Amino acid sequence: MITTNDLQLVAHIVEQGSLTRAADKMFLTQSALSHQLKDLEKRTGMQLFERVNKKLLLTPAGRRIMESATSILPQLTRLQEDIQACRKGRVHSLRISTECYTSYHWLPRIISQLRALHAEVEISIVVAATQKPLTYLMNGELDLAIISNPASHPAIQTQSLFSDNLVAVLPGRHPLAGRKSLSAEDFATENLLAYDVAEESGAYSVLQQFFRESPPASITRLQLTEAIVEMIHAGMGISIFANWAIAPYLKNRDLVTLPLKSPLRKRTWKAAYLDKQNPLIRQFISHIRQHFKPE
Question: How far is residue 193's CA from residue 169's CA, in Å, rounded to a whole number?
Fold first, then answer.
């Protein structure tokens, strides 16, 4: 078995260029360092260095170990620094995702504001987690997920962020555009334009409950908000959006928004996380509550 001490041994010899200088760097005698090197070569069954014109050069096996040392040792150093930072109440990174693609219209702005306050922290959006944010959270690939569904695991902590209202979006010339509100039955002859989302997402759950008794005639699933909006405008279907998500698209298009006849029209968004001691998560939650209201 090759250990981190073995990697450091080879790295020091390469860095210093001789056993004597490497021994001084590691606070060892030259004989002790030579013994460690021979032990490593015995365990690997390969010679790791060879002398050429009084220089120590890596053999192919030695180069392979050195490549691993170059990759692994800095990661271990960063890990130790992260652990020390966490112990002192500091964090070096915050990975965020959301179950709703429309949230990416406002989430980057919030993250930019947080970065300005915490230049030393790497704050990133994990777009790949959008389809299954809670799965990524439980797998340790995410620090915070923005969700509207209840958390499915007792280990997940949640805090409310904000609420929004869902509205139907139709072309202005649509026969239903004159209504005061729409029920699920009104979609019975319509093509619903919806986001292509995972079944665990809040958006999927809301639509499933809203259309439980009376489903739409057909459903076309897309990922891009712009594509859904253009298809609505072209008369290819109608959709359901959060009021704040559709608002920017209403200015230059003949589109109409109508309230939904359902208690499901109002959603509460929550921050979901595992590490309740992470101070940056608390600041992120506080920042959204104070500075962002997607009305």
Answer: 10
